Structure to design on (278 residues):
């Protein structure tokens, strides 16, 4: 049962930052809320990078689920949205598993974080990334998202419209029905041998598919570090994103802070004799 702190009945504009900070700290203490962690998962799954950003690494057989931030929101206990959303958040099934409160700002606002999974599969000497796609045409999916967004704007003005809420829930359910996935090769140690810098996932540069580009390659003894970028500029919306991977399939910018280790690595123009992970 959440302990209420709202009996003060003070409007948002009348509460000073100091008072809001005091209210926030009291609420956290009374409800036993840990900050910047996931308290309902095994603690060895929780990782922090050099910026103290939280990641969760969940192993399911040979499949790796990396839970990363899908969005951060600032919420305030002294306004109507925070009064409603924050208690709902800490009472939800996801809290402490895929959502958490990161910190309390000096003005008493909470930073809430929601995580979503990036899924990878290791098979022998190769790393695969799960890629989502829709089984319906892009225009059809876009039209559903446009309708959902239009309804969301109306709900921002009147969040008591249960009929509109239900419509939006149904739209998301319909979109989810058309969502599928496949595993796409992301990394193999021989992809960039002999100075090669690009790998076409379709096998041909003539097809519209992702291109994996080697941005940087460094070595420190038998440790190899690859900075790769996945580009696709032939679709309606060009996409690009990057990973840092070592030859043991560690995602080096997510699995901790390796500043000292990486500082000892030296740049290499090409890999002459790749030694693949067995």
């Amino acid at each position: 049962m959440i302990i209420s702190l709202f009996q003060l009945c003070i409007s948002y504009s009348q509460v000073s930052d100091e008072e809001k900070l005091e209210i926030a700290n009291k609420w956290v203490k009374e409800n036993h809320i840990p900050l910047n962690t996931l308290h309902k998962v095994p603690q060895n799954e929780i990782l922090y990078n050099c910026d103290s950003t939280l990641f969760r690494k969940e192993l399911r057989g040979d499949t790796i689920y990396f839970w990363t931030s899908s969005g951060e929101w600032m919420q305030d206990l002294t306004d109507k949205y925070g009064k409603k959303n924050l208690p709902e958040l800490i009472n939800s099934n996801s809290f402490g598993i895929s959502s958490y409160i990161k910190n309390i700002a000096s003005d008493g606002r909470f930073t809430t974080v929601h995580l979503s999974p990036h899924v990878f599969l290791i098979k022998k000497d190769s790393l695969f990334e799960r890629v989502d796609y829709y089984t319906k045409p892009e225009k059809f999916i876009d039209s559903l998202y446009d309708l959902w967004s239009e309804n969301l704007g109306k709900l921002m003005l009147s969040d008591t419209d249960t009929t509109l809420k239900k419509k939006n829930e149904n739209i998301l359910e319909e979109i989810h029905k058309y969502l599928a996935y496949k595993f796409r090769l992301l990394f193999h140690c021989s992809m960039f041998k002999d100075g090669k810098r690009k790998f076409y996932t379709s096998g041909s540069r003539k097809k519209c598919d992702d291109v994996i580009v080697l941005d940087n390659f460094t070595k420190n003894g038998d440790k190899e570090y690859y900075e790769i970028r996945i580009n696709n500029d032939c679709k309606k919306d060009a996409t690009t994103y990057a990973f840092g991977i070592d030859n043991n399939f560690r995602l080096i910018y997510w699995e901790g802070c390796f500043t000292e280790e990486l500082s000892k690595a030296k740049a290499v123009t090409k890999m002459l004799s790749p030694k693949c992970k067995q």
